[in-house]
Hints:
mainly alpha; Growth Hormone, Chain: A; 18 helices; disordered C terminus
Amino acid sequence: MLSPLQGLFPRGTRLLLANSYLATVPMGFLMVVVPLYLARAGLEPAFIGLLYAVSGLVTAGLVAASGILADRFGRSRFLVAGTVLPIASYLILALTTDRAWLVVAATLGGVGLANGAAGAMTVASYDALLAERTSGADRTKVFATAQALWNLALATGAASAGVPELLRAAGMAELDSYRPSFLIAIAVAVVATALILPLRELRPAHHDAPPGWLPRRSVRPIVTYSIGIGLLGFGLGVAVQLMPLWLNLRFGATEADLGPWYALAQLLSISSVAVVPWLDRRFGASRSVMAMQLTSGALLALIVAAPAFSIAIGLFMARSFLTNISWPFQQSLLMGAVAASERASAAGIGFAVWGLANAIGPGIAGVLLGTGVLALPLLAGAVAYSGAGLAFGIGFARLHARTRPWSEEAALAVTPPEPLP
């Protein structure tokens, strides 16, 4: 899977990339299947939206503290913990559809892209670990590679979304047809965890840590990033996370209908490996993000008026492509603008805002879909995506014009030779 990267990145970086790929494969399956699986179990859209809201709220509540603690006590430990936690959620999904246990599953991880406590443990630590193994000149390329593998993982998972329907056709009971896939997800998560157990910190946890616990050096870029990422979180929550249910209500689409399209959207986004570095050289990160998110907002609005499933899913795929290739730019902008010793804290605070905003969206969308109001969630998402594009484009352009990014410090932080991971 990662053999083409053998000569490009050191071993520790390759282990991180492999971990991210495997840990994301179940998410690709679940993002298509879970809303429809729960609907088949008799749960109403409002409760399904509530589960996604719980996942986002837990992430928002824990991720900032996780980032700060990871900077102090070791980022690799937090990444291991975040990779392990979803195993309990997958087991719950395999065994029961009891509402209380489903809330527990959403809290731990495995429901929604926010991924609950697991997402809080993982996201800040992963970006910081990847950044510290990368020079400033290569950072956008490495994050683009990580994004491409993430897209490939989502595609792998989404492509298997039709498995439950095949099992039902073979005579398996409706809800039982989902359970083998949940058990396979557990096995994949175990392997993902094993890959990163050998990782060690490149620097001591307290290396270059400023006095106190808060990231005081990087306030301006953190605030700028949080505004943009918060708007993206709300747009994703209100317009995208329940999209399988939206397409089911509007066009009668099933998991088997949606899985190949979701997989294709992610496969197309793998081109970020080539597209992102070219856009970075040609237009710069902040202008590229602004153009992508403004266009994504327009595409969401157009889905509302789509007369057929084929048109709606085509517009959705285009939005997915643009949004996916914008992430490496956003990560690189933040990691290059904050102090190296505050990277996990900065990513954690930003993702906390993302998680809180993301948690609000599915709850609103679930209530609206349950009452038959289909247009408003997508229009609200369109406005949020457009606002995010302006925040990143204008905010980081002004930030770089006024202050010196920490790129030189970041480059110095990775000059020591990497120990065996």
